[in-house]
Design a protein that fits this description.
This protein has about 300 residues and is mainly alpha-helical. The protein has 2 domains: about 140 residues, Peroxidase, domain 1 (Orthogonal Bundle); about 140 residues, Peroxidase, domain 2 (Orthogonal Bundle). Helices cover about 40% and strands about 5% of the residues. The protein contains 11 helices and 4 strands. The strands form 2 sheets. Strands 1-2 form a two-stranded antiparallel ribbon. Helix 8 crosses helix 10. It is globular, with a radius of gyration of 20 Å.
Length: about 300
């Protein structure tokens, strides 16, 4: 299967065990911590949605040389799972030095994490190269307080349809946590006791207990799980939740309320096969956005550092 200059099985001859090596690392990490599926999904999105899937998100800032990176950008400061990519890269460098890109490791690891979380199984094409720049100023991602139409503009700019957007968010947000700072503006305790009409009152009460109030916010910006029914599984329970006005993030709740998207949410709830297929195809599509191929970029030896940093 070919996707432009990418293809499934790209490393069949140059590093035949590449995909198995990544899968083994992800499996071991998943056995210890089931939440890595959310971490890798988020990493994949945050890398691919900026300058394309080029592993620019993995570069460490270097304060000693006054060098920043995408990790310095606000939306990326809570991204985690970099150690999983490091472990896979180390194993791959031993097996096949300077062969498998960090960008491909992210896509393969995300695919494997999705399957382990009960989501769809699918193949991802490989052959990406790693980028040579990592600029926090370029990190422009849709925020949780935007409307469906505003978020859709981000997705259409990358070539995605509304249907694909709803599938990516509906399945992707069925795992993982979110910090109070991303939704406390919806809570009655931060709005002089006024309930948000789009939030179930019982959910508001639970979240107030965690996040505090405008006069006394909870310290250290605590987090809550997005899917309160099956928080570690990719399934339709999250979509059921937002239909019941139990969406924690504004944008998630709007998916179930906005005339643009509500019928799609309802369809996915009753047709998990279509949700999974659309999510898988959209995730593959996301992994091919603005990739570097051929002689472009480089194959990093260490995913956190350019081979020849300036």
């Amino acid at each position: 299967m070919v996707f432009g200059d990418l293809r499934v099985g790209f490393y069949s001859f140059s590093c035949p065990n590449a995909e198995a090596i990544v899968r083994d690392v992800v499996q071991r990490r998943f056995n210890d911590n089931k939440s890595i599926n959310a971490a890798l999904l988020r990493m994949h999105f945050h890398d691919c949605f900026v300058t394309g899937c080029d592993a620019s998100l993995l570069i460490d800032p270097n304060p000693a040389r006054n060098k920043t990176s995408e990790k310095n950008a606000g939306p990326n400061r809570s991204v985690r799972g970099f150690d999983i990519i490091d472990e896979a890269k180390s194993a791959l460098e031993q097996a096949c030095p300077s062969t498998v890109s960090c960008a491909d490791i992210i896509s393969l690891a995300t695919r494997d994490a999705v399957a382990l979380a009960g989501g769809p199984t699918f193949n991802v094409p490989t052959g990406r190269r790693d980028g040579l720049a990592s600029d926090p100023a370029l990190v422009k991602l849709p925020g949780p307080s935007l409307s469906v139409l505003e978020v859709l503009k981000f997705f259409t700019a990358k070539g995605f349809s509304l249907f694909e957007m709803v599938a990516l968010m509906g399945a992707g947000h069925s795992v993982g946590n979110v910090h109070c700072s991303n939704f406390r503006d919806r809570l009655s305790s931060f709005n002089n006791g006024t309930l948000d009409p789009t939030m179930d009152p019982s959910l508001d009460a639970k979240l107030v207990q965690v996040c505090g109030s405008s006069g006394q916010p909870a310290p250290n910006d605590p987090s809550v799980i997005l899917d309160m029914t099956t928080p570690l599984a990719i399934d339709t329970q999250f979509l059921n939740q937002i239909i019941q006005k139990k969406g924690i993030l504004h944008i998630d709740q709007q998916l179930a309320l906005d005339p643009l998207s509500r019928d799609m949410v309802s369809r996915f709830v009753t047709d998990s096969d279509t949700l999974f297929q659309t999510f898988a195809n959209a995730t593959i599509k996301l992994s091919t956005v603005n990739v570097l191929v051929g002689n472009q970029g480089e194959i990093r030896r260490n995913c956190r550092v350019f081979n020849n940093p300036l």
